[in-house]
Amino acid sequence: MSPDALTAYVAFLMTLGPGCAGGFYSAMSGFYIQQFKSPSFYVTMLFCFMVPQPVVSLIQQRFDNSIDAIVSTKTAYAFRVIAMQLVLACIVLFWMFAPEEQWVISPSAVHSGP
Protein backbone atom coordinates (compact mmCIF):
# COMPACT_ATOMS: atom_id res chain seq x y z
CA MET A 1 0.00 0.00 0.00
CA SER A 2 1.40 3.38 -0.98
CA PRO A 3 1.93 6.09 1.64
CA ASP A 4 -0.76 8.27 0.03
CA ALA A 5 -3.30 5.44 0.13
CA LEU A 6 -2.37 4.62 3.71
CA THR A 7 -2.75 8.28 4.71
CA ALA A 8 -6.19 8.44 3.07
CA TYR A 9 -7.21 5.21 4.80
CA VAL A 10 -6.09 6.47 8.22
CA ALA A 11 -7.84 9.82 7.66
CA PHE A 12 -11.03 7.94 6.78
CA LEU A 13 -10.82 5.79 9.91
CA MET A 14 -10.13 8.79 12.15
CA THR A 15 -13.26 10.58 10.94
CA LEU A 16 -15.49 7.49 10.83
CA GLY A 17 -16.24 7.38 14.57
CA PRO A 18 -17.06 11.07 15.05
CA GLY A 19 -19.03 11.09 11.79
CA CYS A 20 -21.11 8.09 12.85
CA ALA A 21 -21.72 9.61 16.28
CA GLY A 22 -22.87 12.90 14.73
CA GLY A 23 -25.07 11.09 12.25
CA PHE A 24 -26.68 9.01 14.97
CA TYR A 25 -27.20 12.06 17.19
CA SER A 26 -28.86 14.08 14.43
CA ALA A 27 -30.86 11.09 13.15
CA MET A 28 -32.54 10.92 16.55
CA SER A 29 -33.96 14.41 15.96
CA GLY A 30 -37.24 13.11 14.55
CA PHE A 31 -37.90 11.18 17.74
CA TYR A 32 -37.01 14.13 19.93
CA ILE A 33 -39.07 16.60 17.86
CA GLN A 34 -42.09 14.32 18.32
CA GLN A 35 -41.32 13.61 21.97
CA PHE A 36 -40.91 17.25 22.99
CA LYS A 37 -43.41 18.67 20.46
CA SER A 38 -40.88 21.26 19.32
CA PRO A 39 -39.94 21.48 15.61
CA SER A 40 -37.06 23.84 16.43
CA PHE A 41 -35.41 21.26 18.68
CA TYR A 42 -33.32 19.95 15.74
CA VAL A 43 -31.62 23.34 15.40
CA THR A 44 -30.72 23.23 19.08
CA MET A 45 -29.31 19.73 18.68
CA LEU A 46 -27.14 20.85 15.76
CA PHE A 47 -26.00 23.87 17.75
CA CYS A 48 -24.92 21.66 20.67
CA PHE A 49 -23.15 19.29 18.27
CA MET A 50 -21.32 21.85 16.13
CA VAL A 51 -20.30 24.65 18.53
CA PRO A 52 -17.82 22.68 20.69
CA GLN A 53 -15.67 21.63 17.71
CA PRO A 54 -14.15 25.05 16.85
CA VAL A 55 -13.97 25.98 20.53
CA VAL A 56 -11.90 22.87 21.30
CA SER A 57 -9.65 23.57 18.30
CA LEU A 58 -9.02 27.13 19.47
CA ILE A 59 -8.29 26.01 23.04
CA GLN A 60 -5.95 23.29 21.80
CA GLN A 61 -4.11 25.69 19.49
CA ARG A 62 -3.66 28.22 22.27
CA PHE A 63 -2.75 25.97 25.21
CA ASP A 64 -1.31 22.76 23.72
CA ASN A 65 2.35 23.75 23.91
CA SER A 66 2.11 25.08 27.45
CA ILE A 67 0.31 21.97 28.74
CA ASP A 68 2.91 19.75 27.05
CA ALA A 69 5.66 21.77 28.74
CA ILE A 70 4.02 21.43 32.16
CA VAL A 71 3.09 17.72 32.19
CA SER A 72 5.10 16.34 29.23
CA THR A 73 3.80 15.31 25.84
CA LYS A 74 3.58 11.64 26.84
CA THR A 75 1.35 12.38 29.84
CA ALA A 76 -0.85 14.80 27.90
CA TYR A 77 -1.29 12.22 25.13
CA ALA A 78 -2.19 9.49 27.64
CA PHE A 79 -4.72 11.82 29.26
CA ARG A 80 -6.32 12.63 25.90
CA VAL A 81 -6.43 9.06 24.64
CA ILE A 82 -7.16 7.08 27.82
CA ALA A 83 -8.64 9.35 30.49
CA MET A 84 -10.92 11.28 28.18
CA GLN A 85 -12.30 8.04 26.71
CA LEU A 86 -13.28 7.03 30.24
CA VAL A 87 -14.90 10.42 30.81
CA LEU A 88 -16.83 10.08 27.55
CA ALA A 89 -17.93 6.56 28.50
CA CYS A 90 -19.30 7.89 31.81
CA ILE A 91 -21.16 10.67 30.00
CA VAL A 92 -22.67 8.17 27.56
CA LEU A 93 -23.76 5.92 30.44
CA PHE A 94 -25.42 8.88 32.15
CA TRP A 95 -27.13 9.86 28.91
CA MET A 96 -28.37 6.31 28.25
CA PHE A 97 -30.07 5.95 31.62
CA ALA A 98 -31.22 9.54 32.08
CA PRO A 99 -34.89 10.43 31.69
CA GLU A 100 -36.07 11.83 28.37
CA GLU A 101 -35.87 15.50 29.22
CA GLN A 102 -34.81 18.35 26.95
CA TRP A 103 -31.93 19.42 29.21
CA VAL A 104 -30.45 15.89 28.97
CA ILE A 105 -30.57 15.74 25.17
CA SER A 106 -29.63 19.31 24.37
CA PRO A 107 -28.55 21.45 27.36
CA SER A 108 -29.20 24.76 25.63
CA ALA A 109 -32.79 23.82 24.71
CA VAL A 110 -35.52 26.00 26.06
CA HIS A 111 -38.78 24.20 26.68
CA SER A 112 -41.43 26.07 24.71
CA GLY A 113 -44.35 23.67 24.90
CA PRO A 114 -46.48 21.91 27.52
In short:
This protein has helices at residues 3-27, 29-36, 41-50, 52-71, 73-97, 102-105. The protein is mainly α and 114 residues long.
Written description of the protein model:
With 114 residues, the chain is mainly alpha-helical. The chain folds into two domains: 50 residues, no CATH class; 56 residues, no CATH class. It is built from six helices and no strands. The radius of gyration is 18 Å and the shape is extended.
Can you tag this structure with a few keywords?
114 residues; mainly alpha; 2 domains
Q: What is the fold's blueprint, element by element?
A:
Elements: H1 3-27, H2 29-36, H3 41-50, H4 52-71, H5 73-97, H6 102-105
- Give the proportion of residues in helices: over 70%
Residues in β-strands, percent: under 5%
* N-end to C-end Cα span: 58 Å
Q: What's the quaternary structure here?
A: single chain
Summed over residues and divided by their number, the pLDDT gives a mean of 82
Q: Return residue spans where pLDDT drops below 50 for at least 5 consecutive residues.
A: none
Question: Please, how many domains?
Answer: 2
> How many β strands by DSSP?
0
Q: Tell me the major beta sheet.
A: none
Inertia-based shape:
extended
Separate helix tally: 6
Structural class: mainly alpha
| Rg value | 18 Å
